[in-house]
Design brief:
By secondary structure, the protein is mainly beta. Helices cover 10% and strands 60% of the residues. It has 3 helices and 8 strands, in the order αβαββαβββββ. An 8-stranded antiparallel beta barrel has the order 1-2-3-4-5-6-7-8. A hairpin with a 2-residue loop joins β7 and β8. The longest helix is centred in the N-terminal third of the chain and has 6 residues. It is elongated. The mean pLDDT is 84.
């Protein structure tokens, strides 16, 4: 494939991710998150791509069998239940030297708690009630591993779910396979 064809192509990558919470409220109540993601991207310069990423992340609680007493609030129940965050984020990625890359993405996130679909991340006291939608952002750095037949992207990312001027953060690893072209 020529450089012009490579520059005009639309690429697709997909893979798995794992993360741990690093902010105090979520760190106290939840642990490992696992998920999947995919990204569609296009080169706008030789060293810059723009794209859009969709993420699915399922976060596990630290306490599996909480005794629910009759006067337990919905927020208290949600604090000890697993939850999902779905997000859609436009992004930009910059190629660095030796197949390293750096990127940033920001978009909308939607949280779903196993306790109640309407509360989202409402267990976080700073949100002061049901919080399903938020601003999801990631800052990531990674390395592309190229062989003759495939490209694998491994990246470290810091994610953020922001609502009501409060953010919950996680640190994760992403392992993606990059397809040649769509």
């Amino acid at each position: 494939m020529s450089r012009a064809q490579e520059h005009d192509a639309i690429y697709f990558e997909s893979g798995v991710q794992v993360s741990i919470p690093v902010h105090i409220m979520m760190y106290r109540s939840h642990r490992l998150g696992v998920g999947a993601n995919f990204r569609i991207m296009k080169h706008i310069t030789e060293k810059t791509t723009i794209g859009i990423r969709a993420d699915y992340e399922y976060r596990f609680t630290k306490i599996n069998k909480l005794a629910i007493v009759p006067d337990t609030t919905l927020a208290e129940q949600a604090r000890y239940r697993n939850f999902i965050i779905l997000s859609l984020k436009p992004n930009v990625q910059f190629a660095l030297q030796s197949n390293w890359f750096l990127g940033i993405e920001s978009g909308v996130g939607y949280a779903i708690s196993d306790a109640n679909k309407g509360i989202g991340l409402g267990f976080v006291s700073e949100f002061a009630g049901p919080q399903r939608f938020g601003l999801c952002s990631n800052l990531f750095i990674g390395k592309q591993i190229k062989t003759i037949s495939y490209k694998m992207n491994i990246s470290l990312y810091l994610s953020q779910y922001l609502a009501h001027w409060h953010a919950e953060n996680a640190l994760g690893l992403r392992f993606n396979y990059q397809f040649n072209r769509l």
